[in-house]
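Sample entry (277 residues):
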Amino acid sequence: MKKVKSELPISYITIKTTKSRINKGLLAIPMSLIDLFPKNTNKIFLVNDNGQIERKTFTPYNSSSRECRIGGLREFYKNHSIVDGEELVIQLLDNDKFRILPEKLFQHLLKTKRADFEQSISEDEAERNLTDISRFVNLTQAQILKNEFIFRSKQEINERKFIEKNKTKVRENVPCSIRKILLELYSGRCQVTDFTFLTESYEPYFDVHHIEPKKGNHFKNLLVVSPNTHARFTHCILEQNFDKEGWLRKVKFNDEEFKVFQIIDKLNIDFKKEVHF
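Predicted structure, serialized as tokens:
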């Protein structure tokens, strides 16, 4: 087994296929993964591309063959044109239910679902798209939002886009998906004053401030703030101190200085892909 950097905001597991097993319609489970699979059964359930459950033959490691393997995959290999050395993503959905997908398809589907979430135009749509991702990767919505925050924080900061509104160009607003991520991580609490404002329905009420107005919706350039704090960024004499990685750490309004809370300090996740042979 070897670990490599994941190109997605998720850690996942793959098994590298071999020509001999492909020809027999089998998938051999490496010793490094046998603890994920049942110990005493001759069947296993796989969720196919359409979300339907299929029963497959299964040979546990403690059988006479001394090889843990899944059978009945000849059609799967044919439909996806699987070749020697190709990697299959293995997802454990529950105790005896798994999903197997070619890695290229897994990456494509997840990138598409993430794009749908990122481009959501309403809170309801963002919630539906987030639920779709959660079901696909078998992670909680909270974990997905944390992963997205970490993953996007490592990307470059682009210029803020303009949109045309009544024939006048205005700077784009913060997308629903980003507000959802910030709400999950900060719970509406102002990063500068540590205050939380609630609506009459007891929902957090907060603004999202662009530290550099011309820069885009990058998490290093965004602050969760109360409306009062937001106004002070405009009307006070302002001093700002950043760390070497570009996170705002201190802000001074006139002569009043505040430390800025950054949730990234509490998040330490490296996304890895485990390749098993």
